[in-house]
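Budget justification aside, the reviewers requested a transparent look at the raw inputs and outputs of the sequence design task funded under Objective 1. We therefore reproduce one unedited record. The lines immediately below are the structure tokens for a 124-residue chain.
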């Protein structure tokens, strides 16, 4: 069972990145996937959540309107499209899964599986 996050990099303010999170050993169908980030010297912050059972997406206020969740169940992959990036978005980004069938971003989640993190740096 593994989650593999990728797509991070160095970009300038205002640019975009798309992060990917590929699952192996289990299916992402009908479960909730969360994206988290941790900036240097700060605690972990939940950025977004997407659940398949109800098609719901949730976003932190700090990224709402700029970040968008997407998923491709055929490829067992979820994406985080990040637009209009700001220096304060600089962090290591992680994807995590609650493997409970039918898990929803509206409910109480247990993120049992975590990816290894991908670094996003926004700097001019």
């Amino acid at each position: 069972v593994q989650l593999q996050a990728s797509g991070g990099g160095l970009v300038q303010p205002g640019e975009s990145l798309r992060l990917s999170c590929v699952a192996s050993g289990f299916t992402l169908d009908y479960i909730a996937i969360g994206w988290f980030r941790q900036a240097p010297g700060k605690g972990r912050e939940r950025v977004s959540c997407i659940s398949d059972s109800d098609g719901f997406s949730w976003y932190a206020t700090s990224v709402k309107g700029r970040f968008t969740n997407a998923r491709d169940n055929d490829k067992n992959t979820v994406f985080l499209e990040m637009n209009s990036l700001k220096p304060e978005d600089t962090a290591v980004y992680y994807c995590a899964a609650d493997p409970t069938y039918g898990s929803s971003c509206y409910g109480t989640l247990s993120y049992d599986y975590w990816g290894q993190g991908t670094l996003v740096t926004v700097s001019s």
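The two ends are 38 Å apart (CA to CA). The first strand starts at residue 2 and ends at 6. Computational costs for records of this kind are itemized in the attached budget.
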